[in-house]
What does this fold into?
Amino acid sequence: MPGYHTIPVDIQHGEKTQGFFAYDQPDTLVIFVHGFNGSSIGTWNNFPESIVNDSEFSNVDFIFYGYDTFRAAAAFHSVAFKEFLDKCIQPRMNGILPQNQSLEERNYSKIILVAHSLGALIVRQAVVLACKQNVNWLNQISLLLFAPAHKGARVQKLAKEVLTGLGGIIAAIGKYKYPVYEDLEPDSLFISNLIVDTRNLLNQGGYQCNIAKKVIWAELDRVVAQVPFCSDPQPELVYGKGHINVCKPDNNYRKPIEFLKEILL
Amino acid sequence: MNTTKQRNAEYSDPRIRNLISLSLEYRQQGNALRGYEVLNPLIEKNEDGGISFLLRHHSSRTVHWPELALRFEIDALIEFYNLCFVSILAGFAPANLTEDLNEEIVKVLSQKSVRRYFSEYYPYFLTQVTLAYVQNGKEVSVPENQTGLFYSFLMLNQEIKKDKDITAFLNLLDFVSFGDAGINHLIAYLKGEKNLRDLIKEKESPMAMALFGFIKYSDFLNSFKTILDGASSYPLMQSAMWLFHGYYIDRLGVAMSEIFNKGFEAVANIIATNYDELFKEFEEREPTISDGNQKRELLELLYGMRDNILYVLNPRFKDPINNFYYSLKA
It folds into this structure.
């Protein structure tokens, strides 16, 4: 019977960020970062269910990071996420671990950032910022990116499939453009700078954290531009899934869990 | 429970540790703790007058801050007890909780004015069931392991709990007006009778927040359907999860269905009649990937979301717990 983790607790960073934490001293932290119109939990569907019942995750802490994609641009969210990452290195001292659940301070050897769509932009830019500051946790970072929008998104298709969460449809009707729309254009200043910065860091050597451990493309994804990013490995393909459900495990689709385990182990 | 006993119990039965974790987060801090600290001394001193006044119906005398704040704290305490009941049905916490907690639940929920508050003035049916269950001590069959589903349930609850936009929408639905603007004004925006773009840009105005709340609550109900579907093999747990949100989806279910029907219909009508104009810019930018079926797909998506929402708002979800409650009372 499971009982490896605390119950999910609120974390006072980002937007509705939640986490659950291992009772046994964990060596790994996994942080999930959703995409546009997503939410800290909704994007990931049955991930929490699969995780808490699996003994292989018994000594892993999990955080589902949220941010308000209707408000502010990608650059803003990236800095906020980078600041959050800084605090995650000593989560108890920085008030991320629930203070009342008798958990000890962590000393993570691995931090896996799992991002979907726009979340990949946020995560990559946060890592670039961290590299520029030469923070001491760069070597712990691994990236697992589902349908990443790091080469932009087809805004028209985005309007249909992603924004068409009701929020997107209503914005389209109101002819309103959310700030992140511009950032998601394939030739946006944000993406162009991200690519240049990443290349420069990789050319300097020693910043391997900018190379994703795994990139996942969905066969039916008509939202993001499926173009390799800098030195990322060859993407792994998932057949029969689209942009939105490629990162959502269920009883019949276990690949997202398997991908995570492959990086974890 | 002392520390040694607690530790021993934790290792012999993970459900005890689960319950402790639940209690530490939802009862031993924040609103629920303050709610208990407000109520307990009054109950101990048998001062029903004070409780009765604090938990009065608003029609007898308007309830203002800071009384409202105290009532929210008591609501959080009541919600914790209900959460315990759901956690039992999920096999997450032990069926008999702990002796101390059972005593506390009975002491608080059976107090005359507290009981009137949740059963008559502001009906929250699950609370009556929680009390009856704890008082009755009847054994209930629980699934072996639905911890994961219970986590998803908790996390989804937390997503909507402190959301100001959702609160604004639910207040509007609960017949609270912002000046002279009510729920019909929101529908007018969705129908295009008022300028939607201006409203979205306002962001922090009560009506703009209600609009975002409408969007977010739609997303919540869609996600909640996934959880209810996941619990379909366990009707009692499914029903209890549904009733946990019953203060709105049970009490205001009919009004809510009507609003979501109207809202989605309004948006669909605009898509159906103005699609070309609305998406002209996108079409011009990327004409090569237009497949001509998007209007139909968009409408299908909207109606799918609406159908999911109406599915969740169906009061039949109440039946298993309702039957269970009457079996306890029999």
Q: What stands out?
A: Confidence is low (pLDDT under 50) at residues 1-5, 286-290 of chain B.
